[in-house]
Every structure is written in structure tokens, then in C-alpha cells.
Amino acid sequence: MTMPDTKRKIDAIWRMESAKLIAALTRMVRDVGLAEDLAHDALVTALERWPETGIPEKPGAWLMTTAKRRAIDFLRRNKLRDQKYAELAYNRDLYTEDDVDPAIDKEIDDDLLRLIFMTCHPVLSQEARVALTLRLLCGLTTDEIARSFITSESTIAQRIVRAKRTLRSANIPFEVPTGEELNARLSAVLKVIYIMFNEGYSATSGDDWIRPLLCQEALRLGRIIAEIIPDEPEVHGLVALMELQSSRLKTRVSPTGEPILLMDQNRAKWDQLLIRRGLAALERSQKLGRTLGPYTLQAAISACHAQARTAEETNWTRIVALYEALAMVMLSPIVELNRAVAISMAFGPAYGLQIVDEISTEPSLKEYHLLPSIRGDFLMKLGRFEEARTEFEKAASMTRNVREQELLLKRAAECESDEKR
Known about the structure:
It comes from Lederbergia citri. Pfam families: DUF6596, Sigma70_r2, Sigma70_r4_2. By secondary structure, the protein is an all-alpha fold. Among the domains are: 1-102; 351-421, Alpha Horseshoe (Serine Threonine Protein Phosphatase 5, Tetratricopeptide repeat). The chain is 72% helix and 1% strand. The chain contains 19 helices and 2 strands. It has helices at residues 3-29, 32-53, 59-78, 82-90, 102-119, 126-138, 142-149, 153-170, 179-201, 212-228, 233-246, 272-287, 294-306, 316-329, 333-347, 349-359, 370-381, 385-398, 402-420, and strands spanning 205-206, 400-401. The chain has a two-stranded parallel sheet with strand order 1-2. The model is unreliable at 90-108 (pLDDT under 50).
């Protein structure tokens, strides 16, 4: 295996294992910033050794063992937490790649849940909570998080640094809260899971358009929280949304990795089990009898697609109505952009284009590549091929996802061919 191949595999392993490492290390040292540093030390060691020795059979366990040894060395050197160190030294937590069992896996799962509630503590601003959790639980770079927030990378970096410092100085406990405190943190936790899923569903950068493992992890966390808080409709709404969206994952890319848009997907291959689970979660949310929140409304929109046997049977009029309801509880330029798409499908591209042009000067959409992409689609359908080509090329220059860029440039080329006819 070549050096570049090894580094790509190590990067993929890190994406999968970093959250577990940081969560377990946080339980040991009670400092998320230090835990992240120790995890990165283990990654550096892997980058130094694995190109020569080969990737271990159980790389996650290897990283965990290396990181925990560094944590114990740190505790010993600093003569801190003597009681905790004694417990670690004699009873548990240090294991090798040949010593992974279900009990340890369960402990890791618990640690991940504790970590997400810790990073969503009210001592932090909501923006800081989301940014820090995405960094620690998803392994996203500051650039990827910035694009999720549609803000600058430097702003996100500052938020993360300040958040880790605040958690350390406030000595926030590493635990899942109960009662009123649990409900107080729930909104931020759900937002974290939502953004985590969206990053997996449509990656902001890299060579792949989707990151299924990130979607699976977000869905797993959502299911856990739905069991912990069964009477909160928005928890079930978010789970419903993720189940329904996940049902399309296998049809969103071709065998060679090219993106396949919703209207072109083979609906016969959508995962019917996930659709049934999603519809059941949506029904459970609606039966709780409260005003529908943003996650439940988005799940209802996704259900319209899931229940249409063909793209032509989609109830776009109902989707427009649901987007209008969504705009009332979560007004944002992105919701308006999605509403424009629904209106174009229900009533024609000219109506959608009018809405897009009205929000095109919105500052938060200045770097949002889907704005010119959607505008290009409307223009193409209206036969304004030269303008459409310009918009697709602009969108391609703005995205950092290689697959999406290729798709946009392909659509630009199609406009050029149509223009010459």
C-alpha cells in the first residue's frame, strides 16, 4: 500500500473513531480540551507508525489503548486525581486491540451521550455548543463546521477555543443530566444531531458526496434520546426526519460515486424499513398533540417524497404548504430557498425564480453555493441556457465537495450544448 493510500485510510479511521476516543478520555481527565489533545497525540503516533508497520486489525482499539496510556502518563506526571488513577491502573479502561468486547462498546456508547450533553451545557452559547460538539463528536474540521453554519472559519475556531476553556474553568460534570436540566439542554442537542446528520447526508467538502457513517451516528444518538425523553414531539420529529432521509442514501450516488438528484433516484431501491420507521416516528410526534415544530414539519415534507411511488406523483402542493408552516416557526433564507424549489415544482419555475431573486441579496447566502445552483436550475427549465450555465459555473466554484462540483460543471456543459442547438 502506498503512503497516500495509508494516509487516506488513517483519515477515514480517525473520522470513525475520534468521537469515541475523546469521549472516553474526557471521562478519564474531565477536560474536553485535554482529551482532544491526547486523542490527537494518538493519531500522530499512528501516522508515524502505521505506514511502516501496517494498519492494525482493530485500529480503533489500538488508538484507544495508545491514547489512554498517554492519559495515564499525564495523570501520573502531574500527580493529579490519585484516586482516579488508582482505579484506572488496577481495575479497568486500559485494553489492547485484542481485548474489545460488548461491555466496553456499551461503555463507549454511554460516554458519547455524556459528551454530547456536556458540550451542550447552558454555560456555553448555543452557537458554541453546536460548534464544539460537531468538532468533538463528528471530527469535523473548523472549515466544515463554518460551512454548516454559513459563517467564517476564524469565527468557528474562536468559538471552539473559548468553549473548551469555559467548560474547563466551570468544571462541568461529565454526565447525562436529569429533570429540568435535561430539557434545558435538549434544543442544543437536537440541533447538533441535525447538523451532524446533514453533514453526512450532503458533505460540505471532500471526495464523497455523502458520509453514511455520520448519518448513522446521528440517527443512533437521536434514537437513544427518543428513548430517554419519550414525551417530547420534536425528538421523534427529528428521528423521523433522519429515518426518512436515510432511506434514500443508497440511491443518492451511482456505483462510481456520482450524485443522483432526488427526482432521478430509483425509488424502488429506497429502504422501506427505514421509511416505515420514519413514518411511525412522525405519527408518534404528531400524536403528542402539540404545535408541530421545525423537525416534525421537515419530517412531514420528507414523508411526502417517501409516500410518492414516482417522482411525478409527489404532492408538491402539500409540500409548499408545509414549507409555509415551517417558515412561520423557523424563518430563514434557506427555508425560503427550499420553499422556492417546492413552488417551482407545484406552479412552475418562473414563480420559484421570483422568490430566489428576492432573497439573492441576503448576506448569509453570499457564500451558499445552492443559491446559484437552484437559480441555474430554474433558468435552465425556462430555456435561458446562457444565464443558467453562468449560475452553475458560479455554484461549482463555490462548493468544496468534489462530487458536487463535477455535477454542477456537467449541468453547465449541458446548458452550453442546449444553447448551441
